Predict the 3D structure of the following.
Amino acid sequence: MRDSVVEKERERQERLAATGRALRSCVRVPTDTYITGDIPTLLTRLGQMPAIPERKPR
C-alpha cells in the first residue's frame, strides 16, 4: 500500500517536472524587472475583464 502511494507521488512529480520543462522550452520568461513586476497587476486587471466584451448600444 505504502509503495503505491510513493509511486503515485513520484509519477505526479515527474509529470509536473515534464510540464515545467515543456513550458520553459516554449515560453520565454521575461527578465526585465519592470515587466516582471507588472505581471501580477496585469493578470489582476485581465481577471476583472468580462470574457465576452459587452456590446455598446448604437
